[in-house]
Amino acid sequence: MAAESFENEESAEFLNPHYIAVKVSREARPDLDAVYMSAMQQLTGTRGGPMSVWLTAARATSVRMAQAT
């Protein structure tokens, strides 16, 4: 997922001027991963990953899970 989202020039050209992208490593920061997984459980009723959590300026949330292929 990192290669598709964080190392792709086309994605970067869109994301960088519109969003602040933050990548949370489950292995490096299990404490932060637990916070996002808990939020996902509450918002969608399921857990799993990979996922994207979006927070708008009005603090509304949107959660997207990638489908396994």
Automatic annotation (TrEMBL):
It comes from the Bacteria. InterPro entries: Ssp411, Ssp411-like_TRX. Residues 1-60 form the Spermatogenesis-associated protein 20-like TRX domain. PANTHER family: SPERMATOGENESIS-ASSOCIATED PROTEIN 20. This is DUF255 domain-containing protein. It comes from Candidatus Accumulibacter proximus.
